[in-house]
Model the fold of this input.
Amino acid sequence: MRTRMIAVAVAGVILLVGAMLTAQEKAEPKWLDVENCYFCQPLANPPGMLQNVDWEEFNVANGILTVVTVKPGFEEPYAKAHDEMEARWKAYDPANPQPMCGMCQAYMAAIDATVKMEEVKTKHGGAGLTTSTNPETVAKLHAIVDRTNQEMAAWEKAQMEKTEPMKAVETKAKEKEKAKEPKTDQE
Done:
């Protein structure tokens, strides 16, 4: 009888731990999720925007520096997306929660009364400086940059892996075409 109770208890603990792990997996959103994040969604239009915007983030002593460079032809759509994102942030009401990616959740959790945000718009993007006088807040901001840079590197690698096979196919096709061309006396 005692062995049976221990077995039931162990099985219960295993089920509980499994349920907790599953709940944690569901609770943690993707770090960068343009399609599903209320604040990031404007970056999804027009298609191809993300592939034509370079987003760099750097840790500085008292916060972070963000530099955005937009490739030619995407300046206007990016400016519209940026303005929409900014409007959504300003109008956000915590009483009416919206779906957020992990990065936006982290920013929301990091921003406190000590945070100061400055932005300079440029011809091809912009630069933003987010600073704080609170060392704990600065540490949170630095953690966001570190994670974002890791996620962006992984995303860029995945994008390259998608395009590299196509480049190889294109190169082989060009080589075949060149091989078909008649040889001249100068070659």
The radius of gyration is 24 Å.
